[in-house]
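The record is passed on directly below:
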Amino acid sequence: MIPRRLVLVLALSLNLATGLLINNSQATIPNSTLVKLKIPSPERDFPIRTVYVWTPAVPVDQITVLPVVYMLHGWPGSPSGLMSAVIPQLTKAFAGGSAPFIAVFPDGNSISHPDSEWADSYDGRAKIETWLTTNVIDKVEAGNIRSKDNRAILGFSMGGYGAASIGMHHPNLYGQIISLAGYFVVDDDTNVFGNKSSQIAKIAYQSPANFAVVANQFRWFLGESHQDYTPLIRGQSVAWAKKLKGVNASYTLSSASGGHSYTFVANEIPIVTKWLKWSAVPAVTPSPEPPIETLTATQTPTVLTSP
């Protein structure tokens, strides 16, 4: 559940969708805002898809220079589940001095292929990757399209796979990839990539290992709970870290408590906010907000950073 102090605003004087700002350099947002956007997608399953844009409490005239992080949920899952784990931790981290950014939570579910893998399906019924890398960026960042140095992509579970796959498919769009309990192998439970014998090229395109050659163009954060015993997930972060080391890519390995759950995500987010690095942007100071309830780690996370 989204904390009550967050306000869902459908019509704002501050309109992130069109990049309009209040013409008052002294104006501030008294609280963070959560905006629900409906963004067209070039597909049959969901011609209109939903995106939630969370903006921290910073001076209004500085919002358009904030970096942006796109956050992908797992399956089964939805933006609301990921927001419940992430937003309270971001609020606390920004109030504590971490560099603020805008967090974007798109809906990556599909009708024809429920386990969407955040991909364009082989039959064109879902075009989630295309939608996310074109329509969503254009709408969310209208007025100031960020450089890759001020844009990152994060995902949990299936979203972790999606973040890695989409990121490496589009190295010109993202500078940092965060995979939390993600995987780096093809796992197609609902035939989104098609029959193996007839869709060899599509399956090859969806295999992260085939794009390792561009992996050194990103900073990588690989989080996997030491309590995660999910067969698909266990050991994936370490295995991918070895591939990253082989191509001289920068990576960080992190292992927080929480198993394969949103508690684990919540425990990793404070570390992620400190890990992220952005290109030069004007310093912004979040406005103070009332204390909120947050999920807390039951064990201090272990963080290892590559040389």
